[in-house]
Each structure stands twice: as C-alpha cells, then as structure tokens.
C-alpha cells in the first residue's frame, strides 16, 4: 500500500534516503537478541522541513537471519510500487515494513534499546526410576522452545491487532432519522 502523493523533494535523493531508513530499521529489527522483539523504528533526516520515519517488524517465530531475509524481500518491493511516494507499507506473512514523512508511531512508546530477558537457570529434574535421562532431557528440550515460541507469537499478534484497532475510523450509525 502506498500514499498517492509524490515527494516534492528531489525524487532520486528521497528514494535513496527511504532505502537507507528502511534498511537501517530492518537491520535493527533482525539483529534483536534472542527473546527480544524483532521490531525497530528509525528517523532519517531528509531536509530542513522533512524527515523519513520507518518501522520494521518480524514475527517472533523467525530467526534473525530469516527475519532479515523476509524484510529484504519486502524492501525490494519498494522501488517497484512506491518510488517517490511519501509513504508506503509492504506486508509479508511474517514481516512488515513501513515508511512515512510524518511520524506514524508513538516514539515515546518505543524503547531506546531492547534489553533481552535474563537467561533462565538450568533445569535439573530428578530422573524417575525405570526411565532414561535422555528422554526427560529430550522432552524438556522440545517443550520449552515450543512454549516460548507460542508466547512470543501471541505477543506479536496482540501488538499487530492493537495497532490495527488504532487505525480504524469510527463512522456514526444511521438511526433512520433525517438530519
């Protein structure tokens, strides 16, 4: 999706600044530490009157390298669809990129730097009699990453849903009376 208005600033320079801004956001989002949200915003100076604001986000289930690949794919669509446009959004199932010349995100709500959660202490469980220690460790090694992935995915889904609600506009219902 793109804004129908073109920039009044030098189009080639503007497109170059957009590329820099979205690539910086993508790099920051993809390089988030394990357990942190793969989300980043960027503000790039354009001229005395205008900045370019960009946002990049991946779903929590993606690894850093898969996040970077996904964001690179959506960014590669910008010159095709949105050259010289003052704003655009490109979605993929697991990532999202947006840029605008107006600040479209709450800058005070974005942490300056995402701090990863502290590492979990190692889990040592007693081995029940007659059972192999390998099977207990294997079960734990499978269940914990799945649980963490589900929690992170739900957090990302909730963020996107909350964001989608904020962009809806209310239209008064017609009560059948002429006004």
Automatic annotation (TrEMBL):
It is found in: Secreted. The keyword Cytoplasm does not apply. The keyword Repeat applies. Its main location: secreted. This is Gnk2-homologous domain-containing protein. Residues 1-104 form the Gnk2-homologous domain. It comes from Salix brachista. PANTHER family: CYSTEINE-RICH REPEAT SECRETORY PROTEIN 38, CYSTEINE-RICH REPEAT SECRETORY PROTEIN 38-RELATED. InterPro entries: CRR_secretory_protein (IPR050581), GNK2 (IPR002902), GNK2_sf (IPR038408). It holds the Pfam family Stress-antifung. One of its GO terms (cellular component) is extracellular region. The chain crosses the membrane at residues 137-160. Belongs to the cysteine-rich repeat secretory protein family. Keywords: Membrane, Repeat, Secreted, Signal, Transmembrane, Transmembrane helix.
């Amino acid at each position: 999706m793109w804004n129908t208005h073109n920039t009044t600033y030098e189009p080639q320079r503007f497109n170059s600044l957009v590329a820099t801004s979205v690539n910086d956001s993508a790099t920051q989002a993809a390089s988030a530490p394990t357990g942190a949200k793969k989300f980043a915003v960027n503000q790039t100076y354009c001229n005395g009157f205008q900045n370019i604001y960009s946002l990049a986000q991946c779903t929590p289930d993606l690894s850093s390298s898969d996040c970077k690949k996904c964001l690179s794919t959506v960014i590669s669509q910008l010159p095709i669809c949105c050259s010289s446009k003052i704003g655009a959004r490109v979605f993929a199932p697991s990532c999202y990129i947006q840029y605008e010349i107006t600040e479209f995100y709450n800058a005070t709500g974005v942490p300056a730097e995402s701090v990863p959660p502290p590492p979990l202490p190692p889990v040592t469980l007693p081995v029940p009699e007659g059972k192999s220690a390998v099977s207990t460790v294997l079960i734990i090694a499978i269940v914990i990453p799945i649980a963490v992935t589900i929690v992170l995915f739900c957090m990302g889904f909730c963020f996107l849903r909350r964001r989608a609600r904020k962009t809806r506009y209310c239209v008064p219902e017609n009560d059948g009376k002429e006004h």
